[in-house]
Amino acid sequence: MKQANLQQNGVKSRAYRLVQPHEVVETALEHELREWEVAVEPTLGSICHADLRYFSGQRRPEALKKKLPMALIHEGIGTIVESGTSDREIGQRVVVVPNIQGYLLNGTAQEECCPSCQDTRNSQGSNYCQKGRFLGSGFDGIAQSRLVVPSASAIPVPDEVPDEIAVLTELSSVSYQALHHVKDLLPTARVVVFGDGPVGYLAAAMLHHVYGVSEDRLTVFGAVPEKLGQFDFATRHLVQEYDFSAGGLYDVALECTGGRFSESAINQAIDVLKPGGHLILMGVTEERVPINTRDVLEKGLTLRGSSRSSIEDFLPVLEAMKDPRCQDTLRKLLPSENTVIRSAEDFAEAMEYAENNRGWKKVLLDFEW
Hints:
Blueprint: E1 11-20, E2 23-31, E3 37-46, H1 49-55, H2 61-67, E4 70-71, E5 75-83, E6 93-96, E7 99-100, H3 102-106, H4 115-118, E8 133-134, E9 147-150, E10 154-156, H5 163-166, H6 169-180, E11 191-194, H7 198-209, E12 218-222, H8 225-228, E13 235-238, E14 250-255, H9 262-272, E15 273-281, H10 293-299, E16 302-305, H11 311-320, H12 324-331, E17 339-341, H13 344-356, E18 364-367
Parallel strand pairs: 11-12, 11-14, 12-13, 14-15, 15-16, 17-18
Antiparallel strand pairs: 1-2, 1-4, 3-5, 3-9, 3-18, 5-6, 6-10, 7-8
Helix pairs in contact: 6-7, 6-11
Organism: Paenibacillus aurantius
Family: Belongs to the zinc-containing alcohol dehydrogenase family.
Protein name: Alcohol dehydrogenase catalytic domain-containing protein
């Protein structure tokens, strides 16, 4: 296995940093490369709504002041160009895990990290590490020519998975992680997804292709017929035409709308859940959302929020992506062509386009360094 000699002066990187809303500048960075880390050259990235909230200034002013300047993008793949460890090969194609726990950052044992990581009874505890960092959220993300991460956070992409599918791994893994909490119910559960955007689509795709939830047990509620029509592996209903007074029909509900539609989606989900049901919140909103707590109490519902994933969530997703049927499902989210990024100006233009054209398909960034 090839292993590079570590650069004495560090790894030089060109980062496209957001310095204030709508303003991106190229910045020279230098990263230390330690013996448990690798340097990755990003090749393909995907714009997330979280990136757009930073770029457009929709985050709270105190959050922007604290986190900027910062290179955006946390969904991406790349090629290993330098390595401090023997477990990753130079030239290897990898997907980047943006949620990096403190013990990985410091090259220490998990037991020496924070209370969340130390709680071995909770297999998902490290997802909420109190000493970790999340790329593109307070720390420089993937929009840079050299990204240094722990080798464990650079997961090899199987040969059967093409780049344009692999770049969807992070967002897909967030759905996988959210559903992991109810995995024992899914072999027989009736499940409903609220939201016909990319988050809802990938959540439904993971339910179908990873957890094996069939069309007769998987329902999707949406507001746009053209978007809803893409969910051809599920039963579909338009929210504006459905009678939510019919009562509890579902065991598990996922709210994937976010923004101003969160309130209606959450409360509609409460309406259709059976007593003892589970509501998983995945949509992000900057505002407080009023919910029908009376029915939550009367039905004994369990609410859980989920917006991140860890290394262990990426592996089953990549395995499922080997299946051509799963790839066909995911390809519906892909644009007709990728956006080539050669400069900070190109990056800013791509972000402006994504902000002004919030369509159903993802915007993919083809980095040429």
